[in-house]
Amino acid sequence: MTKRTIERLERCLAVGLLASGLWATSRPVIAQEANSAASMATAIQEAPRLRFEGRLQQGTLGKAYEGALDNLLRVNTVPDTQAKHNLTGLMANPPGTFIRAGGGYGEPWTRDASLNSWNAGSLLEPVVARNTLWAVCQKQPDGSLVLQRDNQWWDKVIWITGAWSHYKVTGDQKFLELAYSVTQDELALTRREHFNSTYGLFQGPAFFADGIAGYPEPEYDPTNGSSFVLDHRYTKELMSLGTNCVYYNAYKCAALMAKQLGRPAKEAQEYTAQGEALKTAINRHLWMPEKNNYAYFIHGAGPLVGQRDQTQEGIGISFAILFGVADAKQTQALLQTTHRSPHGITTQWPHFARFSDEKPGRHNVSVWPMVNGMWACAAAQAGDVPLFRDEVENVALLALDNNNNFHEIYNAISGKPDGGWQGGHWGPLPDQTWSATAYLRMMYQGLFGMDFQPEGLKFAPHLPAAWGTVSLQGLHYRGSILDITLQGQGSRISHVIMDGQSSKPFVPTTLTGRHILMIALKE
After folding, report:
1. If you count Cβ atoms within 10 Å of the first and of the last residue's Cβ in the chain, which end, N or C, has fewer?
2. Nearest in space to 338 (alpha carbons), one of 277, 296, 395
3. What is the DSSP string of 386-429?
4. pTM, full prediction
């Protein structure tokens, strides 16, 4: 029995125990858990409070925000009681806490750890986020640090984006120095083992689609009963949009890390050149001008080798906009041509031949709030405030319709928690962390337009007209505490007032103490 099979069985067991109310964690280190509980209580107390002036908005968007905070800071911030994740020796202990992947997933997982830290963890609980990023790394016999070695290589480089973001939020120089060495190793390893020089693209399955439900035939083999993508033919050779966008941003982040650390100029130059070449290859091979959209992937092996699959990939399109793979013209085309379900953008569109509205694929036409969060922020970044509003409200209502619980996956038609079909029918898992942090991302990076940079925090808000005045009180940023109010509507800043004085929408890293910031917007 493989390690992955054992993990699947454990997850199934966990879901069953959760449903029966019998789930409990073992308690070998009571003192550490007490410290962890105290730490979580402090994090919740210090979390910024979101307040909408309108009762309707506060009762929906505001309530969902509270549920997302609870999900991240109480439910899924957990102690590493047996120090099994501290393979680097770098996790702070006590409290030794980290962010697990969700109610049905006890591990941090590389992609989940990275996304959750990037979305909100580094801002709200920086020590825990740092622990979480180190929890998916390991120390080699020679003392070097690397990302944990496993067979799911294709989405691990999102860690580099999460690590650079963590530095920008916290200014943790020691973390950056160590993270850069991990970054160098991972980019060299993946380029050596998974780069297709003919196409100029990285090979491997699509970002986060580790289940075979995310692929049509011939990659999907109907005679193969395994749900794991790599157990099916031709999947190792795929060249997908989302995965390559993540690699592109990893190169950008690596170059910025090198510059920030004062490394030799050639290091940053090489990473920048490799990133730009990859961006060119993505647009050359995956952009479909006749559809004004991107293809999902290129078949890298088998009878369809070299052909594009024209399925819409929600996370790939989102990353293309967020990371700057798509130019301004392409971005506007994507906003107009991308298909959305009644409950927001789906992981992919349309159904593969073996799926339907009555039997949706787990990684096909289903709503994963993690994807919706990225799509909403991509829309905001592109200036489409109505589209941003729709996606935020969709995710908030999905949570509120289910006791303010952020599940992992929902049916795109009914909006009910539904794990979709992959072999058999999968049950929905509750308390999914990246669903909750995606919502927090929509508030922080989308609504308030927070853009963390090494020199400070920039604001470029996006306030839908129907939401009215909104405030975020008690935001801890470096040595300052900010009370921020947005007034008006739209994404164009009319004026900014800080502590009663005209100001810019920017807070330097050197600011200390409590300050009141008001940003007025106009369409």
Report:
1. N
2. 296
3. HHHHHHHHHHHHHHHTTTT---S-EETTT--B---EESEEPPPP
4. 0.92
Cβ within 8 Å of residue 517, ≥6 positions away: 459, 482, 483, 484, 485, 496, 497, 498, 503, 507
338 half-sphere exposure, CB direction, 13 A CA radius: 30
List Cβ neighbours of 110 (8 Å cut-off, separation of 6 or more).
136, 147, 148, 152, 155, 156, 158, 159
Dig out the tokens for 87 from the structure: 């393979």
Cis peptide before 95 (omega within 30 of 0): yes
Cβ atoms of residues 331 and 321 within 8 Å: yes
Which residues, at least 6 apart from 13, have a Cβ–Cβ distance to it below 8 Å? none
Please report, for the chain, how many H helices and E strands are present, in that order.
16, 26
In 3-state terms, the chain is what percent helix, strand and coil (to 5)?
45, 20, 35
Rounded Cα–Cα distance for residues 42 and 31 (Å): 17
Residue 52 forms beta bridges with which residues?
470
Cα–Cα distance between 239 and 221 in angstroms, integer? 18
> What pLDDT sits at residue 9?
32
Q: What is the DSSP letter of 523?
A: -
Measured in whole angstroms, how far is the alpha carbon of residue 23 from the centre of its chain? 27
pLDDT value of position 367: 98
| Token digits of residue 251 | 């190169």
Please report, for the chain, the start and end positions of each structural domain, with discontinuous segments joined by +: 54-76+341-434, 457-523
The closest alpha carbon to 465, from 445, 483, 491, 446, belongs to: 491
Backbone φ/ψ region at 456: left (φ over 0), alpha (ψ -120 to 50), beta: left
**Residues whose CB is less than 8 angstroms from the CB of residue 160 and which lie 6 or more positions away in sequence, other chains included:** 179, 182, 183, 186, 187, 249, 250, 253, 254
pLDDT of residue 118: 98
Between the CA of residue 90 and those of 134, 179, 315, what are the distances in Å?
7, 12, 31
Q: What are phi and psi of 129, to 5 degrees?
A: -65, -40
* The predicted structure's pLDDT at residue 38: 63
Output the six-digit token pair for 318. Answer: 């989102």
Q: What are phi and psi of 196, to 5 degrees?
A: -100, 105
Phi, psi of 78 (to 5 degrees): -130, 155
Top CATH class of 457-523 equals mainly beta
* 392 within 8 A of 52, measured Cβ to Cβ: no
Cβ atoms of residues 296 and 348 within 8 Å: yes
One-letter identity of residue 308: R
- Output the CA–CA distances (angstroms, integers) from residue 327 to 269, 295, 322, 332, in the order listed: 22, 16, 11, 9
Among 114, 116, 175, 122, which Cα is nearest to 148's?
Answer: 114
Distance CA 105, CA 86 (A): 18
Residues of the chain short of pLDDT 70, as ranges, are 1-42, 94
